[in-house]
Design goal:
- The chain has about 425 residues and is mainly alpha-helical.
- It is built from 17 helices and no strands.
- About 80% of the residues lie in helices and about 0% in strands.
- Helix 1 runs parallel beside helix 6, helix 4 runs antiparallel to helix 7 and helix 6 packs antiparallel against helix 10.
Length: about 425
């Protein structure tokens, strides 16, 4: 196998963590209205599911622990085995017969997904050829949106089966996780991590240590980087998490759309995102002004979200909203967070920093998720304006502080950041 083919294969196998992550989120969202009807779940319990789903708190905790382990023992050990834990958690959702079993399943799945994200994203950045990091990161983001498309289309096809259809969708994710475990067993460890770990091991007494201590994250340059990432991505993720987990539910309860129509609309939106990543982010992020690209994506999303705040939630409004927000989102915050969170930190702190920032973002989303059902019930226009505000704030953070890393190697970026601190 040529080096190029091997690099793309590694990117796909690592990036399938995104497929698993997003598939878990959206499979839960597609099943949410069905569970509400079958188990007569309260608004508070719906908020609890959103808070502890793979979308939020449990994923944040998993990322925090998994990210640190990735830097200490290597990427391969984490991403190879955590999918077994994921499959175990998903089986709780497949066979859930009581509401508490759904909560247990979501927590276990979220922990596994969270642990896998920093391992996979670090591996993709470290194995990508110089000058093509954006392209390889983009493939992982395409897989992030492919997961929801497959899950939603399966949910649509299986809609007549009700809750049984949701169980089949969850079972498909468990099978993917087991297959991914087998395929990842043949992957190699990150050469950049191996070199950095070896340098730390053989460093002579009195030499400056390789940055590997958690305390190093609290140096001024790393604190600034983490605050930027949490602000830019965290504010956006409050919008995205609400959209990803609750949008089908909102369409049914506020927009009076059928389960099939709400699922079909969201699948179409994610397809637009994949096209946006392929046609815009993968083509341009390694070559053009990344800050300008980010701001353009933010403006498009703000325009789409404002439609829901200004107009009734009719089917045409929902379709335009989905097109604008998903097209802008394809080359916006999600894609740049994966790219920048890998670039802004040295190798032996990369996954730790990604895990920490990802944890803060997801736990923040979990806390916010407690209030989404209540806000929806008391007035959707208020929620829509709040979500628009999140997108505006995220865009402003990127406008002021987004880095310019296009065309630079990881080593060049690290040298520039070290000299500037």
């Amino acid at each position: 196998m040529s080096d190029a083919r091997g690099q793309w294969k590694n990117t796909i196998l690592a990036g399938l963590a995104n497929y698993i992550d997003a598939g878990s989120i959206v499979s839960g969202s597609a099943a949410l209205a069905l569970w509400v009807e079958q188990y007569h779940l309260s608004t508070q319990f719906v908020g609890l599911l959103g808070a502890f789903s793979a979308n939020a708190i449990s994923a944040g905790v998993g990322a925090l622990v998994g990210g640190r382990l990735c830097d200490r023992v290597g990427r391969k050990k984490i991403y190879q085995y955590d999918m077994l834990f994921y499959a175990f958690g998903m089986l709780w959702l497949v066979f859930a017969m009581q509401p508490w079993m759904i909560v247990v399943g979501f927590v276990l799945v979220g922990l596994a997904v969270g642990a896998d994200i920093p391992a996979s994203w670090s591996l993709i950045a470290e194995m990508a050829p110089d000058g093509a990091r954006g392209r390889h990161s983009g493939v992982a983001q395409v897989l992030w949106y492919l997961g929801p498309v497959v899950v939603l289309l399966l949910s649509l096809a299986l809609a007549p089966l009700g809750v049984l259809g949701a169980r089949i969708v969850f079972a498909h994710l468990a099978v993917v996780a087991l297959a991914l475990t087998a395929l990842r067993a043949r992957m190699l460890e990150s050469a950049r991590w191996e070199r950095a770990a070896a340098a730390r091991t053989v460093a002579p007494a009195g030499a400056a240590p390789v940055a590997a201590s958690v305390h190093e994250l609290f140096s001024p340059r790393h604190i600034r980087a983490m605050l930027f990432l949490v602000g830019m991505y965290g504010l956006w993720n409050l919008w995205a998490g609400t959209n990803g987990f609750f949008f089908p539910f909102i369409l049914r309860t506020v927009g009076s759309q059928s389960q099939a129509m709400s699922v079909a609309l969201q699948a179409g939106g994610f397809t637009v995102s994949m096209l946006s990543i392929g046609l815009v982010f993968m083509r341009l992020s390694d070559r053009v002004n990344q800050r300008a690209l980010f701001v353009a994506a933010s403006l498009i999303q703000i325009g789409g979200m404002a439609l829901l705040a200004l107009f009734p939630l009719t089917l045409p409004v929902a379709m335009v909203y989905l097109f604008l927000t998903q097209f802008g989102g394809g080359f916006g915050q999600q894609s740049f967070f994966q790219l920048w969170s890998a670039e802004l930190f040295p190798t032996l702190l990369r996954a730790t920093a990604q895990g920490l920032t990802f944890a803060v973002v997801r736990i923040g989303l979990g806390l916010w998720s407690f209030f989404v059902p209540v806000l929806t019930a008391t007035g959707f226009a208020t929620l829509a304006w709040i979500l628009t505000g999140f997108l505006v704030a995220s865009g402003l953070v990127g406008l002021v502080w987004a880095p310019r890393h296009e065309g630079k190697t990881l080593e060049q970026i690290e040298a520039e950041r070290a000299s500037a601190s």
